[in-house]
Design goal:
Length: 315
């Protein structure tokens, strides 16, 4: 159990620095280029762990499984993380981090619609509190934030929640690390193919005419210099690769409920780190919004954790 909490601690720190690290290199790279690169490399780092998990379960992947992972990669990497990367470019790293951490409330909604999972009283309380937190942070009556950045962040959180719900059955069969690894690799390859296609004149001309210049002629290898390399390696290897590997290792030695504490502490730690590193001011409405989100997270997390503890004690 102690090892599990060490994993959770390291994962929380890595995930809390994700938006900050991306922000520091966002001006040096095309957002789509950065997106497919980090998930492709992150997935490759996870590959040995995924292959070990498959071997232990004595499972071989079928063409149907690859098709499923490709769909998950499309949803997560191509759609959700493109919104996410664009959001990081358009608003504060701390805002993206806090709002994206609310994706569990969207998971609950889609799980109810798609998987017919039950919604309990504490889930409703959590939903209301976290929505209040989002509204307070956005402060629609007097917002100084980028509306585009907020919309992109919420779209990223919603589509990431859809990815989580669609991948639930696959996770039950293969385990989370296998699903994450192959959806990252296949999603990264899909993005790479789309990036190469964006260099075709007929496609790039249409994209430019629609004022979508970031999606036209997407670079593959530009931006990598000695100055950007440390942050690039940190994002690709530490945050995306090691971060997710430790997240699933924590799940193995504790539980899914305990590991979800990562997303409780992330909204606290991220703004503090953004203040220290990026000098991003934390306004009063954001502090209040974070408090609402944290109380909502507690309302969602505590009942399962208490039930889990009672079960363990009964054994």
């Amino acid at each position: 159990m102690k090892k599990g909490f060490i994993y959770i601690g390291i994962t929380t720190f890595l995930f809390s620095t994700m938006e900050i690290a991306l922000k520091t290199i966002s001006e040096n790279f095309n957002p789509i280029q950065l997106n497919f690169s980090r998930f492709l490399i992150g997935g490759i780092i996870l590959l040995p762990f995924a292959l070990k998990a498959l071997k232990s379960k004595k499972i071989s992947l079928t063409p149907k499984d690859i098709k499923t992972f490709s769909l998950l990669g499309l949803t997560c990497v191509v759609i959700s993380m493109t919104f996410y990367q664009l959001a990081v470019m358009n608003t504060k790293a701390s805002v993206v981090s806090v709002l994206f951490s609310c994706n569990p409330i969207f998971v609950m909604i889609f799980a109810y619609i798609v998987l017919k999972e039950k919604i309990y009283k504490h889930n409703i309380i959590a939903l209301v509190l976290e929505l209040l937190g989002i509204i307070v942070i956005i402060n629609p009556l007097n917002t100084k934030l980028s509306i585009t950045g907020i919309i992109l962040t919420l779209l990223a959180a919603i589509t990431f929640a859809i990815y989580g719900v669609l991948g639930k059955k696959s996770c039950a069969k293969f385990g989370g690390i296998v699903v994450t690894c192959f959806s990252f690799i296949l999603g990264g390859l899909e993005m790479l193919i789309l990036s190469l296609l964006s260099h075709l004149n007929i496609i790039s001309d249409v994209l430019k005419s629609l004022n979508l210049n970031k999606f036209a002629e997407i670079p593959i290898l530009s931006g990598y210099t000695l100055d950007t390399l440390p942050n690039v390696l940190y994002v690709f290897i530490c945050v995306t690769g090691i971060g997710y590997a430790l997240y699933f290792k924590a799940m193995e030695v504790t539980s899914a409920n305990t590991t979800s504490l990562v997303f409780f502490f992330k909204p606290i730690l991220s703004p503090i780190l953004a203040l220290i590193i990026l000098k991003e001011v934390i306004p009063l409405n954001m502090i209040l919004g974070i408090i609402f989100i944290l109380i909502g997270s507690l309302a969602s997390l505590l009942p399962p954790l208490i039930n889990e503890r009672h079960k363990n004690l009964s054994y």
